[in-house]
Amino acid sequence: MSDILKLGVNERVKLAQDIWDSVAEHPESIPVTPAQRAELDRRLEEFERDPDSGSESDTALDRKRAMSLRLVVQALAESDIADARRW
């Protein structure tokens, strides 16, 4: 691991991409829990019933980013409130 950390940022990014690509070559080897499998099956069935019911990938990513931003803002606000209470 220490050898990896000695690499430059670009080299580490390339290494991470290469590792991820090697994992993606064998998706069947990624463990999936029964609950995850059931959710994937449910989503696939929903899509097959109505292909237009889903979201465009950009829209879904925008919602995910907005949710992440809200969580960060909430955590910061809670931290500020906790600091204020200590005063």
Protein topology:
Blueprint: H1 2-5, H2 9-24, H3 34-49, H4 57-86
Describe the protein's architecture and organization:
With 87 residues, the chain is mostly helical. It is 76% helix and 0% strand. The chain has four helices and no strands. The longest helix has 30 residues, at 57-86. The protein has helices spanning 2-5, 9-24, 34-49, 57-86.
Fraction of residues in helices? over 70%
Largest sheet composition: none
Q: How many DSSP H or I helices?
A: 4
**Would you tell me the overall average pLDDT?**
85
Low-confidence stretches: none
Give the beta-strand count. Answer: 0
Elements, N to C (H/E): HHHH
Rg over CA atoms, rounded to whole Å, is 20 Å
| Global morphology | flat
Strand content: under 5%
Structural class: mainly alpha
The termini sit apart by 43 Å
Question: Which characteristics define this entry?
Answer:
87 residues, mainly alpha, 4 helices, 76% helix
In short:
The protein has helices spanning 2-5, 9-24, 34-49, 57-86. It has 87 residues and is mostly helical.
